[in-house]
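Data deposition worksheet. Section B asks for the primary sequence of the deposited chain exactly as it was used as input, without tags or linkers unless they were present during the calculation. Section C holds the resulting structure in token form. Section D is free text for depositor observations; keep each observation to a single sentence. Incomplete worksheets are returned to the depositor.
Section A, Depositor: J.P.
Section B:
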Amino acid sequence: MTNSPILSVKQITRRFSGLVAIDRVSFTVEEGEIFGLIGPNGAGKTTMFNMITGLIPPTKGEIFYKDWLIGRSQPYQIAKKGIARTFQNLRLFGNLSVLENVAIANHIHTKSNLISSIWGTKLARAEEQKIQLQAYQLLELVGLESKSDRVAHNLAYGDRRRLELARALALKPQLLLLDEPAAGMNPAEKAALSDLIRKIRSLFNLTIITIEHHVPLVMGLCDRIAVLDFGQLIALGTPETVKNDPMVISAYLGSESNENDKFESKAVAN
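Section C:
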């Protein structure tokens, strides 16, 4: 891991009419780290992801990906630059096959145009074969290769979560945003997910930012953690530092009692 920020969030504010969802938040994410973003429900975590990926613009402030100002860019431009994400509410192409869901994301990097694809030129055929192979390899990585021909909406919930991860990886990102990747998973699936996230970080030389309510998973996985509460950044640091921060404990418990077992129990429930 280097000390070079891949993402810089500078005094970001986002308002929705009279509601301030994000209030002057600043942090950096270093290249190669796994960075956690946690906080109670309604703290502004997904709003932050939506601004980083161009779904909504910030009201004030700046977001830099490397040296590129992305705060007002379109989602497709940000994806092409190397930022991909998964969603809290799954957004798969339910009527397409598992393989097609992953392959379709790869088309953002193709060189052939619509005309060459229609005519089936040599370049178009070669690229399509490459896309299919790469998609299948990603399915192997997440353990879904045996289900490549299934229709996506027929998958079990945990499999659909892994499919969305494979599709995000098909965009060939350098920065990967995971919005509650362990939602709905049992303890064994969560442990396997942690191992998979570490593996893809190493395999693809990724930087990863994850929103996650399951605090034990975050504490064991992340290099650093930022904590939001009512749209404000209340803590930033290593898992141990954040876990013992009185403001973090207060945000989850409603008191400043430094009882970490209660903190983790309450956070998991959220």
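Section D:
Residues 17 and 59 are 11 Å apart (CA to CA).
Strands lie at 5-16, 19-30, 34-38, 60-65, 68-69, 83-85, 175-179, 207-211, 224-229, 232-237.
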